[in-house]
Amino acid sequence: MVAGIIFSLLSSFAVNIGNLVEKQAVSRLPEISAHRGAHLVRTLLSSRRWIVGFLLCLVGLVFQVVAFALAPIPVVQSIFNVGIVVLVVGSRLHLREHLHRREWIGLALVIGSVLSVSVTLGGASGQVGLDGSWEAVVIAAAPTTALVALVVLLIRRGVGSTAFLYGIGAGLLYGVATLGTKGASTLVVRYGLIHAIPAILASGYPYVFVGFSLCGLLLYQTGLQRSRIAIVGSMSDVVCSTYLVAVGTVVFGEHVPTDPVELALRYGGFLGVLVGSVLVAATGSSSADFGPAPAPEVDLGLGPALLAEMDSLTGSREHADRKTE
Description:
The protein contains twelve helices and no strands.
């Protein structure tokens, strides 16, 4: 269980740092759109900086598969959501911005919620669910796809905040993709890492993951270029986590605490992490509207030498003037 928590943290940091690097990249690229998928992919692959961010996300994905094999879904997702809080706070401290009261409240809520989840990890409720099938995942994906189609329709018609809608749509798609990741992890537990590879390829899990990840990528990267990562990224993480806990727990037969107090602590803690993440990530965004934000010039821990090398390889296309809607 402790190893599962560690891999959840590693996954969270890798994915969120990768997202920040991708945000830096897409802010300097020509305008992209989810409706022009081939053009979007070509544009993204023209940026060395974006490729570095994407590779970091892939590393985080590998850590996530391991985490799902070692810990229950609510635990993995609760720990995973801590990453966005730490990164938002860290970036604002690095930029010498003061934390607002709501951010401190959100941070305290996340810390307290993680402690709440941690006290429920013993016994059968801490066991990993190994039930479920890829057919059940496909069944769950069908209504989710219809819901995403509705979200895309709302975006095209300009109904509501497009930043939140991009995050919601991408979060739902990534949620289904993560069901595929969780399914693959159950086969790793059953057969071992090497012997599970044929079983994984013979199942529908990798194809669900790839298909929905690509769709999520189109929507997420478009929203990332047009809106603030604090909004699109946090909403995507929150929706993905909520979807995975709500649907994945049922699909894979995850054990839940039988004691009412432990049950309240686990799911109350999960809800607290979600709320705290939104408080920290969204504070300060309202005063600046939801439009594109200037790309941060911090090195995100990659080091100036690596960033300078990426800039030298990128070419003039990545440094073209940004287009805004």
